Amino acid sequence: KQEVTQIPAALSVPEGENLVLNCSFTDSAIYNLQWFRQDPGKGLTSLLLIQSSQREQTSGRLNASLDKSSGRSTLYIAASQPGDSATYLCAVSGGGGSNYKLTFGKGTLLTVNP
Amino acid sequence: NAGVTQTPKFQVLKTGQSMTLQCAQDMNHEYMSWYRQDPGMGLRLIHYSVGAGITDQGEVPNGYNVSRSTTEDFPLRLLSAAPSQTSVYFCASSRVTNQPQHFGDGTRLSIL
Q1: Residue A44 contacts B, CB cutoff 8 Å
Q2: Among A4, B7, B44, B81, which has the highest number of CB atoms less than 10 A from its own CB?
Q3: What is the model's pLDDT at position A100?
Q4: Which of A78, A111, A94 is nearest to A4 (CA)?
């Protein structure tokens, strides 16, 4: 059974810092990996999707990398801003199940202090 | 462009009552799914559908029923509500497997 772990569970940084969020998964036979953002009381917003054949994806100040063989992904946030404060969730598809079915980590709660 | 719409946003039920959580998407997505989110447990897949007329179970299907008669709608039915089903329920959709999934804003359900 696929399991996804996110470290750290919570992170507090001053504004302007570069930071890294970590995600690991137990079954490397994934189809893709997605990073989501969740604001309090809201749904999930997809930030980046990395196909299993890709190594990284970039969107603005966000960069996500994937090392499928070691079962790891990182989300790099450059020049953090208070508006980046949210819970960040990592999810993988495949890994023994349908390519549509997502297995989620429990998230990293990020607080960026002004 | 409404995206994924879930109704109601909040609901309180008594144990044993039944209800249907509605989910509709206007993006012509084939794939739709239901998750529940609980503190300390993360999001877990309840049921999913890869197209009209096709549904399958996820990780935690017991106590829930689904059907998919149209591409747009994917309702989730609680047959006999139990306190353990108190949770936040999210509906998601995507066009194909290599495209991001879009989530609704959730239904917050309390069972007394």
Answers
A1: yes
A2: A4
A3: 77
A4: A94
Is B43 in contact with A45 (Cβ distance < 8 A)? no
Residue with tokens 């953090």: A80
Average pLDDT over residues B69-76: 97
Which tokens belong to A66?
């994937």
At a CB cut-off of 8 Å and minimum separation 6, what does A53 contact? none
Omega of the bond leading into B61 within 30 degrees of 0 (cis)? no
| Closest residue by Cα to residue B79 from B92, B91, B67, B93 | B67
Q: How far is CA B84 from the centre of its chain?
A: 16
Is residue A3 a contact partner of residue A25, using CB atoms and an 8 Å limit? yes
Contact B47, B76 (CB under 8 A): yes
| Interface touch B90/A44, C-beta < 8 Å | yes
pLDDT of residue B1: 61
Q: What is the pLDDT of residues A27-40, one digit of tens each?
A: 988 999 999 999 99
Amino acid at A100: Y
A65 pLDDT higher than 80: yes
Length of chain B: 112
Q: CB–CB of B100 and A51 under 8 A?
A: no
Instruction: Determine which of A93, A99, A102 to mutate to test the interface with B (most B C-beta atoms within 10 Å).
Output: A102
pLDDT tens, residue by residue, B4-19: 999 999 999 999 999 9
| A31 shares contact with chain B (CB less than 8 Å) | yes
